[in-house]
Amino acid sequence: GARTCATVHLWLIALGRGKMIYYIAENPVSLVRWRGSVVPRACRWAIPCAALAVLYSHILHVWTDWSLSLEEEPTKFEVYAWGLITYVIGFLVVFRAQHAYSRYWEGITLVERACGVWLNGVSNLIAFCSTDPAKQAQVEEFQYVLSRLMSLLFCYCMSDISNLDRSHFPHLDLSGIDPACLEYLEATSAKQNVALQWMQRMIVECNRSGVIDIAAPILSRVFQELSIGIVHLMDAKKISVVPYPFGFAQIVWVMLVFFSLLPVPVMCAIGMSTQKAAGYTFLIVFVFWSVHHLAIQIEQPFGDAPNDLPLAQVNHRFNKVLVRLLEMTAQETPNLLKKPDMSMRFMQRKSSLEQTLPQRPQTMMKKVRSLLGEMDFSRAEGVGPDSSLPSSRRGTAASMSSLDSEITRRSASSA
After folding, report:
1. What are the distances in angstroms from CA 44 to CA 59, 135, 225, 285?
2. Helix H segments across 129-178?
3. Contact status, residue 154 vs residue 315, Cβ threshold 8 Å
4. How many angstroms from the chain centroid is the CA of residue 36?
5. pTM for the complete prediction?
6. Residue 3: which residues within 8 A CB-CB, separation 6 or more?
7. Residue 322 · residue 150 · CB < 8 Å
């Protein structure tokens, strides 16, 4: 039954496949690895360009008068042109990287929100179940089917937004559920919507039969959480379906290829030595292509690449929480075995207040006056509590006068 689901069988997979890379930011050694790194991809462009700079510099040494080229300085137009090209390409590359990171962070945010609202909805439904002993068999059946359908729904959603096979995302054991319904679910193209519809229909029927013992307005919150979760996951699907615009991707790639070849003649034309020309060419090309490849890797975060989001781990954690919610201890309210001594705590708070009051009479007066504001009419207008003021103001003035005398008396006694 649902109460013994702690021993339920999970169809687990090897979570190491496509596992996200975790590292220690304070330990630079943990950053030294090739898996998931963009350094090899950037070096594919940087090393050939640096070698081409060496070759070009050697040709200038052999076939031209190198001493004359050293004496020539670049014109202002050449300097401005180089700066403008560098700025434009750098802006396009950084813009794509920022856009890719926003897609990356939005993806995991939407998935975690859907996970949270659905688990909260399941928790609410379990808490709303009837405690009538005559309906415990129906309650267990409801919890059993609910947890399986929710696990299956989350599995379908993770597989849909990532375009990965369902073997990457295990779900709870479906034994006992009608095989005809499961066959229909496998055959349909709207698996998530059908599973969600089954859960909503089952909630309505259980509420009508008394298995769920809660008022309808409160139960409506569960339907809101179910709809919010599916909307979040459909919103996350747009990240995997809609790629980075082709026009932007094409122009960035063309300009990067052109810019990779441009430093070769530029570094040699300004009179740099062979070593400096090769070094600066490598550095410039390496930086730009590194940022570009980083953006490419994270702009489609739903997959099994090393830098993709850990959807398999999220799905595994979702199933574990479902199992924990069905355990007997999780459904029982903890009892208070020993009643705390509230009177002693009150006396301690009262004694500490009495010790504080005589020590700082002026400070207490300032605080009281700041709270009462302009209510102290006896001091401000020079009239006493027995004047022709309204009764409410005379009462306030009298209270202030008595409070002044009490604080003065306590201060004198403490002194």
Report:
1. 23, 68, 49, 10
2. 136-162
3. yes
4. 21
5. 0.71
6. 140, 326, 327, 328
7. yes
Q: How far, rounded to the nearest angstrom, does the alpha carbon of residue 134 sit from its chain's CA centroid?
A: 43
User: Where is 222: in which H helix or E strand?
Assistant: helix 216-241
Backbone angles phi, psi at 214, to 5 degrees: -155, 155
Asked if 211 contacts 142 with a C-beta cutoff of 8 angstroms, the reply is yes
Please list the pLDDT of the chain residue by residue as tens digits (415 residues): 443 433 333 333 333 344 777 777 777 777 777 788 899 999 999 999 989 888 887 777 766 655 445 445 666 776 788 888 889 999 999 999 999 999 999 999 999 999 999 999 999 999 999 988 899 999 999 999 999 999 999 999 999 998 788 888 999 988 888 899 999 998 998 899 999 999 999 999 999 999 998 888 899 999 999 999 999 999 999 998 998 999 999 999 999 998 888 887 777 666 677 788 888 889 999 999 999 999 999 998 998 888 889 899 999 999 999 999 998 888 888 887 766 655 555 455 545 545 554 545 555 555 555 555 544 444 444 444 444 444 444 454 555 556 556 656 655 555 5
